[in-house]
Amino acid sequence: MAGGQANVKIVDPLTNENIEPLIANSDDGGIEVLTIAATVAVGPDQACRSAIIWTDAADTTVLIDGTAAIAADAGDFLMLQNTYLPIPVSNLKYLRFFGTNGAKVYILFRN
């Protein structure tokens, strides 16, 4: 897993239009980019009010849970490739992503 702040332009995958003004509804927040390693990526310990997540990889699942040692399971939510998923979450560390090694998961969060 690798995470960190990144300078990522946020565009609608269908129209290629900039959607940053549509989701910039907070004075504070940021973007995290995670890389799935050993089939899992865990969000960083970052307090927030909500997040928008997306991935350009197929067959990536997301699980919202406070348990650190948890594995992927058939009940996890399968994310659609290049689709934005808003999630009300109090801390990014509760997000677990399962998928192909090397796949990127992007998280736009607001405080």
Structural commentary:
The protein has one domain: Jelly Rolls. The chain contains one helix and eight strands, in the order αββββββββ. The chain is mainly β. The strands form two sheets. A four-stranded antiparallel sheet has the order 1-8-3-6, with no helix packed on it.
Walk me through the topology.
Blueprint: H1 20-23, E1 29-35, E2 40-42, E3 50-55, E4 60-64, E5 77-79, E6 85-87, E7 95-98, E8 104-110
Antiparallel strand pairs: 1-8, 2-7, 3-6, 3-8, 4-5, 4-7
Q: Which strands sit side by side, in order, in the main sheet?
A: 1-8-3-6
Strand content: 25-35%
- What top-tier CATH class fits best? Mainly Beta
Determine the structural class based on helices, strands and strand pairing.
Answer: mainly beta
Structural domain tally: 1
Order of SSEs: HEEEEEEEE
What level of helicity do the residues show?
under 10%
Number of helices: 1
What gap, in angstroms, lies between the N and C termini? 23 Å
CATH topology: Jelly Rolls
Q: CATH architecture, please?
A: Sandwich
Give the low-confidence spans: 1-6
Number of strands: 8
Q: Over the alpha carbons, how many angstroms does the gyration radius reach? A: 13 Å
Compose a concise summary of this entry.
By secondary structure, the protein is mainly beta.
Quick tags:
Jelly Rolls, 8 strands, 4% helix, 111 residues, 34% strand, 4-stranded antiparallel sheet, mainly beta
